[in-house]
Q: What sequence folds into this?
């Protein structure tokens, strides 16, 4: 099922998507903590504002160079061990919310990624048990200030600006993360087009690796890497990230004055 987080008349709600009716069936609370009990209340999609389907209370855990072609487009190889870094939860925005280009950077790139939402406290989870701690999946854009990434030699500043982690449009709880089209377009021009089957390391492997380092908490998000074709964003662009079986995440691009 697809679970959305949304605002209606100033109230924050969660709901299950009824795709046939294009409606959201309202839940009693945050499904990560209160379950999936529904109310006798529905809203049309065009009556609500979709928000990021989850705002991590703790962290966004991201992995780099998990598609061989993307690693090689920057002159790198797939690393022997996963490359892991953190993005602050303040970088998260939802569908339709603006990606803001900061004055510190002259090149900010899009990076479409599959995002994994953790549903349970997880520490030292073996890969064959990883699915038990996953709540669902959504679409992410790991926005990156490429020049700062290269200049700093580490990735915290380049990937940590406010608005640099769009998520959405909802969480899909039943999803095969081993295959499916993944793409990104800017102004209607397709720039990234690949398949989840081209990931070098599986979702389960990444959950195992991350949870061997630190405890994963409900609502934490794992970004699983981007395919080749990343490119720059400019003021006035609209960037759309898409994963087959989940949906499309679109965001306008503005400049911070």
A:
């Amino acid at each position: 099922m697809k679970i959305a987080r949304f605002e209606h008349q100033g109230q924050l709600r969660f709901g299950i998507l009824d795709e046939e009716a294009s409606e959201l069936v309202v839940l009693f609370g945050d499904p990560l903590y209160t379950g999936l009990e529904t109310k006798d209340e529905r809203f049309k999609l065009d009556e609500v504002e979709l928000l990021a389907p989850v705002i991590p209370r703790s962290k966004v855990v991201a992995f780099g160079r998990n598609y061989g072609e993307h690693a090689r487009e920057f002159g790198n190889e797939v690393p022997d061990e996963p490359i892991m870094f953190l993005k602050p939860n303040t970088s998260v925005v939802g569908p339709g919310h603006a990606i803001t280009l900061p004055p510190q950077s002259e090149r900010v790139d899009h990076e479409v990624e599959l995002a994994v939402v953790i549903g349970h406290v997880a520490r030292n989870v073996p890969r064959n048990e990883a699915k038990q701690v996953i709540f669902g999946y959504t679409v992410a854009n790991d926005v990156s200030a490429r020049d700062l990434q290269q200049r700093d030699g580490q990735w915290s500043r380049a990937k940590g600006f406010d608005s640099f982690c769009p998520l959405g449009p909802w969480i899909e709880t039943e999803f095969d993360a081993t295959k499916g089209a993944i793409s990104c377009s800017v102004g209607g021009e397709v720039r990234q087009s690949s398949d989840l089957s081209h990931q070098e390391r599986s979702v389960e492997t990444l959950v195992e690796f991350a949870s061997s380092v630190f405890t994963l908490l409900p609502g934490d998000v794992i970004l699983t890497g981007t395919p080749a074709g990343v490119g720059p964003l400019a003021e006035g662009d609209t960037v759309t990230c898409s994963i087959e079986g989940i949906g499309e995440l679109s965001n306008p691009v503005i400049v911070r004055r």
Observations:
- The first helix runs from residue 31 to 34.
